[in-house]
Amino acid sequence: MKSLKLAALALLASSALVAPALAQDHAKNIIVLITDGAGPESWNAASYYRHGALGHEAYDGFDLKAYMATHPLNTSSEPTFSDEGSVTFDPTELWTDTAVDTVYEGALGNYAGYFSGYDYARADYTDSAAAATALASGQKTYNNSINWSNNGESLRHIGEYAVESGRALGVVSSVQISHATPAGYLAHNVSRNDYVAIGTEIVDSGLATVVLGTGHPMFDAAGKPVAEPADGAFRYIGGRDTFARLTAGETDYQFIETREDFEALANGTFEMTGDKILGLVQNNATLQFNRPGVGFGDLLENSPSLPTLTAAALNVLAKDEDGFFLMVEGGAVDWAAHANNLPRLIEEQIDFNMAIETAVKWVEANSNWDETLIIVTTDHGNGLLAGPQSDTIAYQPIVNQGQGAMPLVRWHSDTHTRELVPLFAHGAGSEYFRTNAAAEAGLARYGVDEAAQIWVDNTDIFHGAMAAMGIEEVAAN
């Protein structure tokens, strides 16, 4: 493993990549919003609680409503340098309702199999790193990879292409900035767990114009100051030395950390001293999910919301006349699903949905749909959430209890799945996804219109965004 990391550094240092060719009359701006670990019913649970019905979220009015496959190349945790163990995917297998007596062993306990389709959904799933790599680079790879191929080579991600085209890059997350999904748009590493190297690359590359998230070493998961943090607390930002250089103004970034500064950046009153901002919310873990308790209430006062971080990033990126690429992640939805914590999942998904609204309002106030594309999706399902009678009725929908009330549900897992997950797109270039989609009648199980019973692969998010921006993928010399 050490030799692979050394090879990675050597390759990154020596690679000479051809600048991408930029076509005319394409999207100036791309905004990709990813809610981590949200299967179809996770989206519905938030809408039921928030609105008492479906159809009232910003994404419900988008041009494209479809689904997406998320499976990885293989489930190894390191490059295999072979085709052995390659994952195949047949969406029709998801809907098989043959009764089974299997047991799925989870971290929280055991889950009865019930139906063979459930077993298929729970098998050969992606992790967030391989999923982020597929979304950001257009390449399937092994689980654990951050823009690293199964052949041990660095993969070029869309953030690099965007910057080379003259656009600015922004990355926002409700979890640590070096966690899998944001790292997929900022870094390269053979292992997602090498947070120190990933954090160092984020800071020292200066690739992004704005990076906002958590992972602050001087605060705990409850947002409380830590007098003497251990070395491990600094890993998400590249270690003690990198954090010291960042806060001393010795990098490309102006550093911010207080809620007041994030809100000022969002409302346009913050005074920037340079061109780039890196902000760590005063929490080592998440914006809100890891606070004490398991339900609603008692929000951390020093944490801004994800919509605030989204508005802040847009205000910075909009200064670039050539446009921008922005990725916003609602990262803790996945954490809530792992815990089978429905209230916190709903809370996190609503925060994400409000970030979508912030992006839509920005487009309509400051841009237009002829020059901006918004893509909304998730990186994979988690928890295999379904209705209370889904032990006898395959994929029974969750049951709406009205606005402000918990829907009735049943969990069938406490980890990732390879369900087909929702995908929405609106604006310049959104037609790419419908053009490249395949029909899947089984999606009728989710009660969606026939027009939405289509799916694409997660790698199509990269290719669709590249096509929208008019950038052609090029190979290294």
UniProtKB/TrEMBL annotation:
Locate the residues binding Mg(2+): H179, T181, E329
SMART domains referenced in this protein's UniProt entry, alphabetically: alkPPc (SM00098)
**Pfam families from the entry?**
Alk_phosphatase
Positions that bind Zn(2+): D334, H338, D379, H380
N-terminal signal peptide: 1-23
For molecular function, the Gene Ontology terms on record are: alkaline phosphatase activity; metal ion binding
Could you list this entry's UniProt keywords, alphabetically sorted: Hydrolase, Magnesium, Metal-binding, Phosphoprotein, Plasmid, Signal, Zinc
Q: What's the Enzyme Commission number for this chain?
A: 3.1.3.1
Per the Swiss-Prot or TrEMBL record, the active site comprises S128 (phosphoserine intermediate)
**Which metal ions or organic cofactors does this protein require, according to UniProt?**
Zn(2+); Mg(2+)
Q: Which domain of life is it from?
A: Bacteria
Q: What is the free-text note on the cofactor?
A: Binds 2 Zn(2+) ions.
**Similarity annotation:** Belongs to the alkaline phosphatase family.
* PANTHER family per record: ALKALINE PHOSPHATASE
Q: What is this protein called?
A: Alkaline phosphatase
- Taxonomic lineage from the root: Bacteria, Pseudomonadati, Pseudomonadota, Alphaproteobacteria, Rhodobacterales
